[in-house]
Inverse folding.
């Protein structure tokens, strides 16, 4: 369970489903207990198409573990994390049929959206963001990433983590994608990135970037690929890329976007470091929650 | 209520299911693989037949569940009076009163097809 969240762990067996087994429809199972919940953490430990260094299957567990030392209280916003209505759904166990997995994961996340809560997904490889975007149906997707992830298919796989932004651009609701911190891509990808529906902000310009009028009154989804950070700060990821972002630059982006975002994920954390990547991922998730909740609590018009 | 019991695994897109005591038509059905230690679960996304509300459920595939028995019937409009219309069931010749759907133009003598579950009806 994510520290500070309440437990909504899915049971792996049918215990507790007695109502359903007696023949009465227990619709949504335990999810009917979600009244008053504002955020739902969902682990998505997909680790199928990772390139170079695998291990994203351990991402959700690592992020939860390395979030343990964080204080409940946030001085900046004068809030306690444990009082912000965050619940942890547990992991949606991954299997190797990616298309079927994404469909099931999307449904789980859509239940969160239907409950008027904000899904907070822990990856897993970046491919899982496609399920998050489909569930939230945003107009704008903002992504912190070292890579463009705009391959039409990587090694023939259109569901590769390196093709996720290309798939996201095909989601009906999505009008544009803003990629922050990108510093590498193939020639083909840069060609796709030149189109009007893609904006690329290189690392050197991220500190000065802020959401402008283009995000006003539009639904936003925020995805954080932990490899956007310089590998010095987050070595525990599949495809490290030097000359990256400072953690504080990433934090400022998350703080700025959280009030606009109806969905959030942090992905591509693996277990190949001493917890640096997971610690940063967990901290960014908490920053998202604090900033989103803080903005939501402000009276309208301020 | 006219309903029968089945298992979640028997459901499929396009079929009916009871969720929150409402008859719903399934428009998405996906299953999670069980792994070594779990049981397979299914997630069903459906829309209320008579109220149009979206609902979902997530259950083990071997859980029991109720499926509504919905009849598809043919009728003839006898008369229209404001928001209500009199419809004659072409099988039993029984006359029933139905609400005129907002999105449809209806006129007397017109033949219609409708779904019926107990006292709930909806024009197809």
């Amino acid at each position: 369970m994510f520290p500070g969240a309440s437990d909504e762990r899915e049971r792996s067996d049918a215990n507790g489903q007695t109502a359903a087994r007696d023949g009465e429809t227990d619709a949504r199972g335990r999810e009917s207990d979600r009244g008053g919940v504002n955020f739902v953490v969902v682990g998505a430990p997909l680790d199928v198409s990772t390139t170079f260094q695998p291990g994203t299957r351990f991402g959700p567990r690592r992020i939860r573990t390395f979030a343990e030392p964080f204080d409940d209280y946030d001085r900046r916003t004068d809030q306690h994390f444990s009082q912000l209505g965050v619940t942890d759904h547990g992991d949606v166990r991954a299997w190797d049929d990616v298309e079927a997995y994404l469909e099931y994961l999307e449904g789980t996340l859509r239940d969160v959206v239907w409950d008027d809560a904000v899904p907070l997904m822990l990856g897993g490889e970046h491919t899982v963001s496609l399920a998050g975007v489909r569930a939230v149906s945003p107009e704008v997707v903002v992504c912190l990433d070292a890579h463009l992830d705009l391959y039409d298919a990587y090694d023939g796989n259109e569901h590769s983590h390196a093709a996720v932004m290309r798939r996201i651009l095909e989601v009906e609701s999505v009008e544009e994608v803003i990629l922050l911190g990108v510093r590498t891509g193939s020639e083909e990808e840069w060609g796709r990135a030149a189109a009007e529906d893609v904006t690329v902000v290189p690392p050197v310009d991220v500190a000065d970037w802020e959401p402008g009028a283009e995000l006003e009154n539009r639904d936003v989804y925020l995805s954080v690929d932990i490899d956007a950070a310089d590998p010095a700060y987050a070595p525990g990821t599949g495809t490290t890329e030097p000359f990256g972002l400072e953690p504080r630059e990433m934090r400022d982006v998350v703080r700025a976007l959280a009030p606009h975002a109806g969905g959030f994920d942090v992905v591509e954390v693996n277990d190949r470091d001493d917890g640096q990547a997971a610690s940063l991922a967990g901290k960014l998730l908490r920053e998202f929650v604090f900033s989103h909740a803080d903005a939501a609590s402000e009276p309208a018009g301020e | 209520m006219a309903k029968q019991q089945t298992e979640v695994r028997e459901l499929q897109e396009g079929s009916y299911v009871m969720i929150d005591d409402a008859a719903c038509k399934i428009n998405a059905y996906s299953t999670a693989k069980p792994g070594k230690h779990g049981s397979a679960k299914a997630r069903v996304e459906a829309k209320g037949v008579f109220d149009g509300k979206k609902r979902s459920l997530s259950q083990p595939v071997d859980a029991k569940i109720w499926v509504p028995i919905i009849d598809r019937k043919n009728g003839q409009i006898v008369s229209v009076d404001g928001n209500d219309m009199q419809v004659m069931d072409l099988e039993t010749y029984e006359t029933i009163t139905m609400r005129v759907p907002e999105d449809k133009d209806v006129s007397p003598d017109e033949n219609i097809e409708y779904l019926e579950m107990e006292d709930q009806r909806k024009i197809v």
Remarks:
- The longest helix of chain A spans residues 276-297.
- Confidence is low (pLDDT under 50) at residues 10-32 of chain A.
- The longest strand of chain A covers residues 261-267.
